[in-house]
Amino acid sequence: MMAKHGKRYQAASERRDGSKVYGPREALQIVKEAASAKFDETVDAVVRLNVDPRHADQIVRGTVNLPHGTGKSIRVLAIAAGDKAREAREAGADQVGTEFIEKIQQGWLDFDAVVATPDTMREVGKLGRILGPRGLMPTPKAGTVTQDIGRAVKELKAGRIEFRVDKTGNVHAPIGKASFDLDKLEENLQGFMDAVLRARPAAAKGGYVRGVSVSSTMGPGVRIEPAGFRKTA
Q: Which segments of the chain have a pLDDT < 50?
């Protein structure tokens, strides 16, 4: 049974041809025009990849600093001590300290991102079952386990995002707000796509990007012709 959508969604759907693929700028313009909620909707991008995430050598993951940020205020927890704790605090971390490891074990999750110094990872590793499923576990590959913790905090606060392919072969990411200028949304989308293309695993065969779409929080998806993005690989 198909889900029923509200009047706003139906009106937004009428702004785009569901059987058509658009250029990035045109698609984003449709998304902006269709965003009619009473709050500033997030604009999301979804990339369908030709990979099999069941195989470790076909996992796609990475980070990207969006040129214009996501428009969202990110609450950053820094797990560090001594001089590194002071460095994280000065960089703008919202919460700093090793005592938060125990708080998380007790159920506290009032943050959007976590960074940690390597010397704390023996204890932070115990949080894997809690943070892992939520995509919050710090890792060296994502740049969230680092001695340069001040820089990591600043990048997260400025709009650095982490992405990872899900079990269906899709990668999702927020690329801004509906209130953003069209140019900024387009540049953020291009920055995200460049990062996804750079993250292509060697084991991926054939066409890597199968499809791209963008949507706002309350709006329908608008499909984008992926060929242009493939050229930037």
A: 1-5, 12, 233
